[in-house]
Design goal:
Layout: E1 2-5, H1 15-19, E2 24-26, E3 32-34, H2 44-53, E4 59-62
Antiparallel strand pairs: 1-4, 2-3
Length: 63
Amino acid sequence: MKAYVNQEDCISCGLCVSVCPDVFQFNDDDKSEAIKEEIPEDVVESAIEARDGCPVSVIDIEE
């Protein structure tokens, strides 16, 4: 599974970073980005929680 963040529409709220720091971090533009190409199995649930909780729905997770 891979996570992607739409940089253009990210509002930098930080929810995904706080829910799943193993997958998401802030970049130099203070936008969230996926830090791992493949989501580790042990954090898939928290990555999905971060995606589902995003207030502007800019996170995609693909298998």
